[in-house]
Amino acid sequence: MRVMGVDPGLTRCGLSMVQGGRGRTVTALDVDVVRTPPELDLANRLLLVADAAERWMDTHRPEAVAVERVFAQHNVRTAMATAQAGGVIALAAARRGIPVAFHTPSEVKAAVTGNGAADKAQVTAMVTRILGLQVAPKPADAADALALAICHCWRAPLLDRMAKAEQAAAEAQRKYKARLAEQRKAVRP
């Protein structure tokens, strides 16, 4: 599975592309960080991020896009900018029919390091080791984008199986309720 990992942000937006193989084999294909000038207005900064993400999608043709889910930050402005950047990337993927998955930072850290509270240095070290890189990806946004893609490669099969099991359970429950309703009708005079 070819996955585009995105560590969204306005100042720095990490983009990565990995290829997942059998088991937990993952290969890095590309990684970069898109930077936007802080003096630009918000709309134009988002446009720069979206344009870069669209070029990546058109060039690399990912089968899925994994974006960091923003759920809480101390700085509301930073959280809003991060969410907006992630939103324009999700929109670009949706326009291309590419499924988008959102993963929380703790999910990514747990998948890559085994510890949902790992620090950036631990994440970077494990990404470097998992991908067999000679040099650690820098800045941290690049390593985080790779970690998101790795996380999705490893979690997607499990999430898919869980979704199918939930669908099957819902269908079985629907059939059971229909059968009960039919039995109740048959018993009534």
TrEMBL record:
Cofactor remark from the record: Binds 2 Mg(2+) ion per subunit.
Co-factor(s): Mg(2+)
Pfam families, A to Z: RuvC
Keywords associated with the record: Cytoplasm, DNA damage, DNA recombination, DNA repair, DNA-binding, Endonuclease, Hydrolase, Magnesium, Metal-binding, Nuclease
Enzyme class: hydrolase
Binding residue positions for Mg(2+) 1: D7, D141
Signal sequence region: none
Cell compartments where the protein resides: Cytoplasm
Positions annotated to bind Mg(2+) 2: E68
The protein's role, per its UniProt record: The RuvA-RuvB-RuvC complex processes Holliday junction (HJ) DNA during genetic recombination and DNA repair. Endonuclease that resolves HJ intermediates. Cleaves cruciform DNA by making single-stranded nicks across the HJ at symmetrical positions within the homologous arms, yielding a 5'-phosphate and a 3'-hydroxyl group; requires a central core of homology in the junction. The consensus cleavage sequence is 5'-(A/T)TT(C/G)-3'. Cleavage occurs on the 3'-side of the TT dinucleotide at the point of strand exchange.
The protein's name in its UniProt record: Crossover junction endodeoxyribonuclease RuvC
Organism per entry: Nocardia jiangsuensis
